[in-house]
Each structure stands twice: as structure tokens, then as C-alpha cells.
Automatic annotation (TrEMBL):
It is found in: Cell membrane. It comes from the Eukaryota. The keyword Oxidoreductase does not apply. This is G-protein coupled receptors family 1 profile domain-containing protein. GO terms for cellular component: plasma membrane. One of its GO terms (molecular function) is G protein-coupled receptor activity. The chain crosses the membrane at residues 6-34, 46-71, 83-106, 118-142, 162-189, 210-232, 244-267. Keywords: Cell membrane, G-protein coupled receptor, Membrane, Receptor, Transducer, Transmembrane, Transmembrane helix. It comes from Adineta ricciae. Residues 25-265 form the G-protein coupled receptors family 1 profile domain. Its main location: membrane. The keyword Transmembrane applies. It is a multi-pass membrane protein.
């Protein structure tokens, strides 16, 4: 009874987090695509759209797992679902990595114009999806890697088989996570050492890079939320048998990470955020408040003018007449 209640609650949380991910990822894509020709045509927005598509792919894989949660048979369909879920996790983490690579090119290698082109970033996006499909297929060919996991009732890369799960988590999480930290450490080092040669242009670039670094740190933390619990389960299973709820909770953390990323992608993009707030009428209310504040300020100024003493007004008028007589 306790086990059934646990899976009922976790299934509801999976569905809730997946719906949040789908909604905010779709909103971000639609706003960027709709305004692409006029205001959103940039490499950053291109990579943001790619990240949103990886979120939608992961959401589809999660929904497939939840819909077939009560089918504990190791069939070919189960292994295909496991392949889809594992490849979606790879595409998700490597979308972070290509953001880091592109940011490295923009911040440090900006002298090489070829590295800042749309063509190169499209190549990075294609590699993102190719790597996820390729390594997912390799795990599909390994007999014990992708299978039904009784403890979580899902078809995925089980953490109970140490060797395959360790290789899988190294590919899907550890390598991109460490590569992202390394690239962002180079960016941070570059931005801090550039303070020695400050000019107006370099100061503006430094402020922009530091702001970008704050967003980078946020996305690194989101990625860590998704991959660290599963990695801990893999390592602990090598030593002792972990409690059965940990299997589902480690996978739930991946969905939590995806939902947080969908929110971060929307609200960290100033243009998308502004358009989104306009859609829900919050921006209009803010503009009305600004107009009301300006009207109150104008009213206060007029009241202050009306309260000027009469002798001050007469003196001002006399001075003005005296100045005009001098001119004449």
C-alpha cells in the first residue's frame, strides 16, 4: 500500500514537472520564432531554441515512461523507451555544453569571426543531436544496460548494473558537466584578468560578461540538480543496496532540473521575458503604474509652482523686465 501511494505521488509530480517544462519551452520557442526576423535573430536565441527542443524531447520521453509505468515486461518496446529516455538526457546535458562552447567563442575567441557565425553554431546543434542518438544506440546494443527497473517501474539505464550505469552517467552527465565548468572557469579567468586593461569598451564588455557568468552559474547548478542524485545512486549501489524510493527520486530530480531550465531559459532572456509578461498583462499594468507615477510627479510640481510666494514672483518679473530693457 505504501509503495502504491509512493508511485502515485511520484507519477503526479512527474506529470506536473513535465507540463511545466512543455509549457515554458513552447512559449520561449514561439516568442523567439515569431520575432526572429525583426528582433530575436541571434546565436544565443538559436541555441536557446535548441535547448527548448531538447526539453520537449525529454518531456516526451518522460510521458512515455509514465504512461507505461505498469508494464513490467522486458520487451523490445521497453528497451526502445529506455533508449529514448537516455538519449533525451544526453541531448539535454550537451545542449548546456554547446551554450558554454559558444559563450567561450564569444567571450575569449571573438577575434576569430568564423567562430561567431550561425554556420558553426548549426554544426554544434547537429553534433548535439548526433551524440545523443549515437551513444543512446551504443547503450541499446549492450544487453544489460537499458532494461526495466523494478524499483522505479521504468525502462531506463538502470543504476543496479555498475559498469554500464557508470559508463552511461559519465557520458550523459560527468563529461559535459566537467567540460562546462572548465570552459566557464576560462571565461571567468579571462574576465577577471581583463580588468588590468580597462577602457570604456572593455568595461562594458566586462560588465556584460560578469552578468553572463551569473546566468552560467545558475545553469550549472540546474544541471547538477539533475545529474548528481543519479550519480550518487550509481556509486552507492557499488557499495550497498540503496533504498528502493531512491531510484524514482533520482529520476524525478532530472525532471525537476528540466522544469527549472525551461523557466530559466524564459526569464533569463530579457526580450522573451518582456513579451511573456505582456502576454499575461503584467507589463501593461507596470506601464500604467509608471504613467500614474509620472502624473503624480507632475501634479506635485504644479502645486509647488502655485505655492510660490507673491513677492518672489514679482521680483522675478522685475528682473526679467530689467534684462529686456538692457537688450533694447
Amino acid at each position: 500500500m505504501v509503495r502504491e501511494s509512493f508511485f502515485l505521488i511520484t507519477s503526479a509530480l512527474f506529470i506536473l514537472l513535465t507540463l511545466i517544462t512543455i509549457i515554458f519551452a513552447l512559449i520561449t520557442i514561439l516568442i523567439i520564432v515569431y520575432n526572429w526576423k525583426s528582433q530575436t535573430r541571434s546565436i544565443t536565441n538559436l541555441l536557446t531554441c535548441n535547448s527548448c527542443f531538447t526539453l520537449l524531447y525529454h518531456s516526451l520521453a518522460t510521458l512515455l515512461e509514465i504512461l507505461f509505468l505498469s508494464f513490467p515486461v522486458n520487451t523490445i518496446l521497453c528497451r526502445i523507451r529506455a533508449y529514448i529516455y537516455y538519449s533525451s538526457c544526453i541531448s539535454l546535458s550537451y545542449s548546456y555544453l554547446i551554450h558554454a562552447i559558444s559563450r567561450y567563442f564569444i567571450t575569449i575567441r571573438y577575434q576569430h569571426k568564423m567562430l561567431l557565425t550561425f554556420h558553426l553554431n548549426w554544426i554544434l546543434i547537429v553534433l548535439n543531436w548526433f551524440i545523443s542518438a549515437f551513444f543512446g544506440m551504443i547503450m541499446l546494443l549492450i544487453p544489460l544496460a537499458l532494461q526495466y527497473e523494478y524499483e522505479s517501474r521504468m525502462c531506463l539505464l538502470t543504476s543496479k548494473v555498475f559498469l554500464t550505469s557508470l559508463i552511461g552517467v559519465m557520458i550523459a552527465f560527468c563529461f559535459p558537466f566537467l567540460a562546462i565548468i572548465f570552459l566557464y572557469a576560462l571565461i571567468l579567468y579571462h574576465t577577471t584578468t581583463s580588468r588590468r586593461h580597462l577602457s570604456v569598451f572593455n568595461t562594458m564588455r566586462l560588465r556584460r560578461n560578469l552578468k553572463v557568468f551569473q546566468m552560467i552559474l545558475m545553469f550549472v547548478c540546474i544541471l547538477a540538480i539533475g545529474g548528481t542524485p543519479y550519480f550518487i545512486c550509481v556509486m552507492m549501489n557499488r557499495v550497498t543496496q540503496i533504498p528502493w524510493p531512491w531510484y524514482s527520486l533520482s529520476i524525478l530530480c532530472i525532471s525537476l532540473s528540466a522544469a527549472l531550465e525551461s523557466l530559466a531559459l524564459l526569464f533569463s532572456n530579457s526580450f522573451v521575458k518582456r513579451r511573456f509578461l505582456e502576454l499575461i498583462h503584467l507589463q501593461q499594468r507596470t506601464d500604467i503604474n509608471i504613467l500614474i507615477g509620472q502624473h503624480q510627479h507632475s501634479t506635485n510640481y504644479n502645486n509647488h509652482a502655485e505655492n510660490v510666494p507673491l513677492h518672489v514672483s514679482l521680483l522675478t518679473t522685475k528682473d526679467n523686465l530689467h534684462e529686456e530693457s538692457k537688450v533694447n
